[in-house]
Amino acid sequence: MTGFASDLTHVAYESPDIVALYAGPDGLQEPEATLLAQLGSSLGEIEMLDIGVGGGRTTRHFAPLAKTYLGVDYSSAMIERCRLEFPAFRFAVADARRLDFAADESYDLVLFSYNGIDHLDAVERQMALREMHRVLRPGGLMVFSSHNANYLPAIIDRFRFRIKPGLRETLRSFKWSSVFWLKNGLLGYRMPLAAGRVHDGTHSFRSSGIYYVRPDLGVAELRQLGLIDIACAGNESREFVPGDHPGLRQHKDPWIYYVSRKPVHG
Ligand SMILES: C[S@@+](CC[C@H](N)C(=O)[O-])C[C@H]1O[C@@H](n2cnc3c(N)ncnc32)[C@H](O)[C@@H]1O
What we know:
Layout: H1 7-14, H2 16-23, H3 30-39, E1 47-51, H4 59-62, E2 68-73, H5 76-85, E3 90-93, E4 107-112, H6 122-135, E5 136-148, H7 152-158, H8 167-183, H9 187-190, E6 195-198, E7 210-213, H10 215-224, E8 228-234, E9 241-242, E10 255-261
Parallel strand pairs: 1-2, 1-4, 2-3, 4-5, 5-7
Antiparallel strand pairs: 5-10, 6-7, 8-9, 8-10
Helix pairs in contact: 2-5
The protein binds S-adenosylmethionine (SAM).
S-adenosylmethionine is lined by residues 13, 22, 51-55, 57-58, 73-75, 78, 95-97, 113-116, 119-120.
C-alpha cells in the first residue's frame, strides 16, 4: 500500500489478471514509435527512467538501445513480472509521486507511458510531474500520455443504456450504465469538463478514477513547470504538433502524448 488516496487502483495493479493484461501487448503506440525513431542512435547516450513500466511493453523497445535503463512501477507484481521477462535490465518498485531513489537531474529521458499518470488525482499528478521534472537533466525529455477531456462525450455515449438484440446483452448494458452513473453522478453537470477525475470503466471500475485533461490545459501544466519545446500527438498519430497549436484545444483523440524538454541552465 502506498498510503496515498488511490489505493483501489494500486490493489488492481497488484492483481494477477491485471498484470497479465499488461504483460501481453508488446507494440509501441504510434507517438512512442515516432519518439523512438526521432531519438535514433542518440538513445545510446541516454539514461532513461521508465515510470509505470507495467509488464514492460516499452522496455523491449527502449531498454536495449538506451545507455542505461531503469523501469519502475508502484506495483510489486508488475516489477516481478518485468524481472522475469527481462532479466538483463534493471527494475525497481517506486512511486511516481516520490522518486526518492533518484538524485536531482539524473535522467535524460523520463517516460510515463499509456496514461499511467492519470491514476493520480489533481494534487498527486502535480507531485508526479514535479518529481519527473526534478530528476530530469537540463536538456532532457519528459514524455507521458494523458486522457483527453474532449473525448469524454464518447465515454458517456459508450455507457448509455441501449436495448440490445438479446436479453442478456440488454441486461449487461443496463448494469454497466447503472454502475457508470452511480459512480459519476454529477458528471452531466460537470460537462464540458476541462480537467478532472472520471470513473470511465477502466479495469471494470476497479480504479479510483481516471484524470482527464483538455490538451491545451495539459500543455499549460508543463509550461508552469518551466518545460519548453512542448509537442503533442493524439494516441493514433505519428505526427506531433507544437504545444501552442490552435487545434489542440478541440483535439478529440482518446489520449494525448506530451513531449517536453527541460531547459538547459542559462
Ligand atoms: C496503464 S498501465 C501501463 C503499463 C505500461 N506502461 C504499458 O504501457 O503497458 C499503468 C501503469 O502505471 C503504474 N502506476 C500507476 N500509478 C503509479 C504510480 N503512482 N507510480 C508508479 N507506477 C504507477 C501501474 O501500476 C501500471 O503498471
